[in-house]
Write a structure and sequence with these properties.
Largest sheet: 2 strands, antiparallel
Radius of gyration: 34 Å
Number of domains: 2
Bound molecules: zinc ion
Structural class: alpha+beta
Number of helices: 6
Order of helices and strands: EEHHHEEHHH
Number of strands: 4
């Protein structure tokens, strides 16, 4: 089998590169079915990128934002997975969870609840109080 140099197009940079007879012989020898897709510079660039640490899902997890801050409720130092807004209270996990149920209860005592009960007198009685305060 005779091999002659062939001109191939690089899939990465679109440039032409020579697939030499020697390389074709090597490919034939190794029983590689496909022609090389990339020129040598692009191939080595790819290999370098794959070897470089800091890429991949593990690195993405580390780069998550954790901001050190002080709990505005109990004053302990804590970390939050977001950037706290200036002037807004930041709660540690314990305080946040202690607060949540209370907030849910006040949120549920809404007019929609009274309407659902069908208690007209309760709704009427509540209204002036709400307005006064
Ligand atoms: Zn290339
Ligand atoms: Zn706290």
């Amino acid at each position: 089998m005779e091999f002659v140099d062939r001109l191939l197009t690089c899939a990465d940079c679109g440039g032409e590169f020579i697939f030499t007879a020697g390389e074709q012989l090597f490919f034939f020898d190794k029983q590689f079915k496909n022609d090389p897709k990339r020129c040598k510079p692009c191939k080595s660039k790819r290999a370098g990128a794959a070897m470089r640490p800091g890429s991949g899902p593990a690195a993405a997890g580390i780069s998550r934002t954790e901001t050190r801050t002080t709990c505005s409720e109990c004053g302990i130092e804590t970390t939050v997975p977001f950037k706290p807004t200036q002037g807004r209270p930041v709660l540690c996990r314990a305080c946040f969870q202690a607060r949540r149920p209370a907030a849910a209860v006040t949120g549920d005592a809404s007019p929609s609840n009274l309407v659902g009960m069908g208690s007209e007198s309760a709704a009427v009685d509540m209204m002036p109080i709400a307005r006064a305060s």
